Amino acid sequence: MKTIFNRTPLVPNLQAPLCVGAIRPEGWLRTQMEKQLRGLTGRAVALLRAGDLEAEWEKKWQLLDALVPLAWEMEREDLKELVSREMRKLLDSQREDGWFGPEDNSDYWPRMLALRALWQYFTATADRQALKFMDAFFKYQFRNLAEHPLKERAVARGAENMLLAMRLFNLTGQMYLLELCRKLREQTLDWPNFFHTFSLTQPLGKTLRWERLKEALEEEIDDPIAGEHRPYFHTQYHLTHGENLAFGLKSPGIMNLFKSGFKEQGGFRFGWEKLIKHHGVACGCYTCDQHINGASPSQGVEIAAIAELLNALETLIGIGDYGKDLPDLLEKLAFNALPAAFSQEMEHVQRVQQVNQVSISRAKRAFYNEEEDANLFLDRAGEEFSLCAQQGWPKFVSSLWMGTSDDGLAAVSYAPCTVRVRVGEQPVRVRVFGEYPFSETVSIEVTVKKPLEFPMYLRIPQWVRQPMIVLPDGEMMQVRAGETACVRRRWQPGDVVRLELNSSPRITRWYHQSAAVEMGPLLMAFAPASVKEGERVRATEDWNWALLREEPMKAVFSQSPQGFAQGEPGARVLVKAAKTPWTMSGESCGSVPVMPGLEANEVKTLELVPYGATELRIAQFPVGNFYNAQTTE
pTM of the full predicted structure? Predict the structure, then answer.
């Protein structure tokens, strides 16, 4: 199936997603997804087969939204059959007027989820019944949106509905779909203006405590957010909710496709920069426990927000030009916050992670409105946030490469994979070797039946030092970090392009002048020795270290990286650190000390490992000066 690009009068896009199944994971990434199939997703599939998700329709479609790409990427015929069966049930549920799903559920949001899964199914199978189904539903919306408006979460996430309508428009050209998008925009939260005038610079726990917000929501219970109606506290709830913010960040870009303006074009950038400035942490996300709550690395980051933010970035990369750094932002989230949310075998998931996390326990923390077990790794296969989280790796695989409008291919990330597409009438296979991001060298092999000319766009990450591309004939291309190199040539069978993406450990600054050590797209963390006591994990060695200012750092790569496996890190960084007075606050790390005094005339070499391979960790360190130090190993 050919790549689908924006149709006039939508703003044109130069690259767009390939069909589901065109990209298959290899190496450590395939191992990661095999773990997912054996772990949480495997157990969720068992629930689906047993019919245990029928009564909770939204959960079913949360799972299928992840299962469609997973089944085709992993070439699992049993899962393809299961997905096809569920899609037939969905198609058969549609009424003559276009409405579908359970009669006792009038919420648009689960239907957006179902259509999101159905669209992926269409790109994998080319089943045109899916298009007829979508057309009938959108006509229902077009006729009935005034009497049957968006409500609650659908008001916050209405851009998802717009995106699906525009995807159908790109195939059919029916103008009513664009008018439907305009109607949907009127009922969707005004995210472009919210980000342009962003004023939430303090933790929500300080400006609108949960007890007050909860009380106000109960007072407004008979006055819900719906259509264009915006009761104050319901609106504040949705605008500050972490998962909704992920939908909000992609909303201006989606709206920009059919109504281009200053706030729409710059909406993502306005929002992202302000969120990270006031609520950002080093794992690549903003805090949300469940609502935005300041920039302390002891605040929480919810996995559902991580998964939807990944999807938001992938969407923006595929629909328009919203910044060359979007793939860097995507990789930072995918290679850090995402793997850290799951246990090693992906059998358990942690609802809320902390960047500085030295205790995993059932306890009340300074989170905004999370339960006491939010910090635990538990078997949550059938819970909504766990089902939402399962889309993370499969959709990341679907977005590793994109098709371009000049019949080429564009690299988004160099994680190991195989891409199969057709250029003109000829099949093309592109294999990405190397264990990126645990290796600085990436090899890309092109397989064609006979010589074929097409362009390949190779992204150079912003963090690379002295990048280089070596072409099949040995010619070297000098390129710059943050740019995209176009390799346009007549490809011969077996041609190999090699990229040298050299990096070195670097310091980035965060809350309270804390320092994070990053190498390539990886955030590095100190993982103190620990012991597991039932569901609790506690540190058994000191964790309160401060980095020494201007001390050199040493990077070490593994010869046989195992992805994010504990004990076998694909990369390590050695740093000098000194102990500092820094204590716990309840079950969380206390606030990061600013320029702390160091306890003793002693320095230790700490080994930092990838954040995604840790359970307990410190990833945002205080920094201090230390003189006349003696090193102990």
Answer: 0.97
